[in-house]
Amino acid sequence: FPFNVFEIILRCVHTQKTKAHKFKPGMKLEVADLEQPQIIRVATITNIMGRMLQLFFDRQSKFQFVDFESPDIYPIGWCKRTGHTLHSPFGPSKCLYVVFSVSCLWV
Predict the structure, then answer these.
(1) Residue 43: closest CA among 71, 13, 66
(2) Judging by beta carbons within 10 Å of its beta carbon (0-12, 13-18, 19+), is residue 92 exposed, middle or buried?
(3) Global pTM value
(4) Parallel, antiparallel, or unpaired: how do β-strands 36-49 and 86-88 relate?
(5) Could you tell me the CA-to-CA distances from 48 to 22, 29, 43, 56, 89 in Å, in that order?
């Protein structure tokens, strides 16, 4: 395989026009894990490269890149509103959302 994943991402970033979006580094999202799509985890945006968001799953050592228009990213609170299970770094659990905050308390 002649390219590494970062080269491919950079080529995509530089060849596509980027729409405006409101994502910023440090924002929290609920994200489908691309290795296990049935699992939704909390992730933090760590970097933005054109259309691509670099996401680190909270309290884990893994990250993934997704397009900012991906159907696999959701706002904080989406699992609670839709009845999906949000997997904490400690396994599946219910997440109690703190009003006026983007963080949650795991129970």
Answers:
(1) 66
(2) exposed
(3) 0.68
(4) parallel
(5) 11, 14, 14, 12, 23
Burial 20-48 (b: 16+ CB within 10 A, else e): eeeeeeebbbbbbbeeeeebbbbbbbeeb
Q: What average pLDDT does range 23-50 have in this prediction?
A: 92
- The burial of 69, by beta-carbon neighbours within 10 Å (0-12 exposed, 13-18 middle, 19 or more buried), is given as exposed
Over residues 51-102, the pLDDT tens digits come to 899 999 988 888 899 999 999 999 999 999 999 999 876 655 545 444 333 4
Residue with tokens 């405006």: 20
**Kind of pairing between the strands at 86-88 and 91-93:** antiparallel
Report pLDDT for 104: 46
